Predict the structure.
Amino acid sequence: MPDRTRPIRKEICLNEQELSMVRHKMNQLGTRNFGAYVRKMLIDGYIIKVDYTEQKKLAAAVSTIASRVSGRLSLFVRIITQRGQKRVAQLRTPLADLTENRHSSRITPDQRGCDEKSISN
C-alpha cells in the first residue's frame, strides 16, 4: 500500500438496514464507489449537535417530583398503618371483654334447675 494517495484506513460497522439505506442513497447519487461516497459525505456532510440541556433539566425535575411523591406516599402509608394498629387495639379490648363475658355468662345445669343425669339422658 505504499503507492496509495490515502494511506490512513478507517472502518465502519453497519447493520443490514443501515447498509441498505447507504446503498439507496448511493444509487440516488449515481455512484458505485463506496469509499468515494463515504469520504465525500464525511467531509461535506452536516454536523448536527443536539443540545439536551432542557431535556436533562426536565428529567431532573421529574425525578425530584417522583422522589417527593414517593416520600409522601410512604409517610401516608406509615400513618395509616399506625392508625389502623391503634384502631385494631381499641377494637380488641371490647371484643376480649365480650368473649370473656360470653364464657362467664353461660348457664350451668345447676342454674337451669336440672341435674346432670337428666341432661345426659
Remarks:
- Helices lie at 16-29, 34-44, 53-104, 109-112, 116-120.
